[in-house]
Amino acid sequence: MRGRSDVVDAVGVTGQPSDPRTLNARVRLAARYCQGGHDRAALLELGERIIAEVHRVLGPERQDLLLVRAVSISSYPAGGRAEEALAVAERYPVPDDEE
């Protein structure tokens, strides 16, 4: 498992915010924030910054989108923002939503 410095290094490798490797590193960082009980506001800000780009660049079926979407949706209610969780689910649908 990679450490935090590896994530930062991966972000710096390409220098391009839309590069798939950069997006993957940011998604992993958001997941770590969620798992580690970090500041929920920082987690939500990170998720909001990257989810649209992950959806656009990597597509709706990519594991990275599923992860950042799940992290965001599960974090909003805990921050008292349940309606925003529903909005994220509607804005970034995934194939499993249709079943």
Question: How would you characterize the overall build of this protein?
Answer:
The chain has 99 residues and is mostly helical. The chain has one domain. Helices cover 73% and strands 0% of the residues. It has 5 helices and no strands. It has helices spanning 4-14, 20-35, 40-58, 63-78, 82-91. Helix 1 (4-14) packs antiparallel against helix 2 (20-35), helix 2 packs antiparallel against helix 3 and helix 2 (20-35) runs parallel beside helix 4 (63-78). The radius of gyration is 13 Å and the shape is globular. Residues 5-13 have low confidence and may be disordered.
Features:
99 residues; mainly alpha; globular
Summarize the structure.
This protein has five helices and no strands. With 99 residues, the protein is an all-alpha fold.
Number of domains: 1
Query: What are the secondary-structure elements, in order, as H or E?
Result: HHHHH
The average pLDDT score comes to 80
Tell me the Rg in angstroms. Answer: 13 Å
- Structural shape: globular
Rounded to the nearest angstrom, the distance between the terminal CA atoms is: 33 Å
Decide which structural class fits the backbone.
mainly alpha
User: How would you characterize the largest beta sheet?
Assistant: none
Percent of residues in helices:
over 70%
- Which range does the strand content fall in? under 5%
- Count the beta strands: 0
Poorly predicted residue ranges: 5-13
**Number of helical elements:** 5
